[in-house]
Amino acid sequence: MNYEASKQLTDARFKRLVDVQRTIFEEMLSVLKTAYQLKHAKGGQK
C-alpha cells in the first residue's frame, strides 16, 4: 500500500497498518521532507 492509499484509511486502520499514530507519522514526514530539501538544495559556486 502506498502513501496515497493510506490517506483514505481510518485512524484505527492506519495505526494498525503502520503501528504509529497518524499525527506522529505526519510529523515524521515533515521532518524528512525538510531534511531532504536541505540535502538536495541547489548549490553552486559563489
Automatic annotation (TrEMBL):
<protein>
    <submittedName>
        <fullName>IS5/IS1182 family transposase</fullName>
    </submittedName>
</protein>
